[in-house]
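Aim 2 progress update. The chain analyzed this quarter is reproduced below.
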Amino acid sequence: MGSHRFLVKEIAIQAGVSTATVDRVLNNRLHVRHQTRIRVMRALEELERLQDSLNMSGDRFLIDVVVEAPDRFAEIVREAVEAEIISFRPALVRPRFHLRETWTTPDLVARVKRIGNSGSKGVLLKAKNLSDIRCAIGVLHKQNVPTATLVTDIPDSARIAYAGMDNVCAGETASYLMSRFVVALGGTVLVTISHDDFLGEADRVASFRQAILVARPDLKLAQISCGHAQSTTTRRQVSDLLERGARITGVYSAGGGNRAILEAFDTHSAPEPVVIGHDLDDENRVLLRAGRISALIVHDLNQDIRQAFAGFISFHKPKFKTEAVRFSTVQIVTPANIPEIV
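Predicted structure tokens:
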């Protein structure tokens, strides 16, 4: 393995493993799991990006970012975190990332337990609203490790804050747009969700369904859960509907996977629907520019992360004044107003 500039101890902290494990990975020794090798290599990449802050002096806050989401969304979370940590100087926020497209509940709980045992100043968590995960948040709280939920909430837990937009308002906004963009009478609006246990998506869908049935009683509704918005599952489920003869005139994509959704329409030569989605990731930018997505409902992810991290610092340093975490403002992006990437 090539040379690096970091102490084994620093790499071990960033990877959340022992120094002995890091030594085995760096020296290509046996008896190291493949996933552990990947974690150590990713830790090295993260340290390279954090190099400037590692050389500075100040109070250090090691914060863990645990996300279950498609890679396309996890990447914009990573970018937002790394963009915002400089705003807390002279406090030095050092993030560790635990990003997976899918976590089993036992694996996620085990990772959270390891974070609590190894020491952390806070956990920013995007996960399902399940009892085992709520219990894990409670254990962290007892260990003096605060948790803030991101984008999708886990309300009946010991989390200190939810950072994200008002998902009920987001669903109502999607209904307003859909009711006006779908011109033809009749037809079916397809609602897609990545997983029923993500409370944020469930709230979006519930408010959308309630509002669209009032605004457009002529429209039928169909719903699929798209297996964590992964392409193969999403494409297959949409294809099944089209093969059964569904006349889908609109899609409210509450959980992502828009390219796969549209690929299913292309495969079946079906008329292209109005698509209302969420999040301005790279995939959605391409589809929006091509006019294949009519509108995206977005929010200021950087603001969410900034407020959550400020809450962590305030938890440990009460003299650090911070405003209460508020819902992000719901914003609408169309092909006419796509913001530039900063």
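The mean pLDDT is 88. Residues 50-165+300-329 form a domain with the Rossmann fold fold (CATH 3.40.50.2300). These observations will guide the mutagenesis experiments scheduled for the next reporting period.
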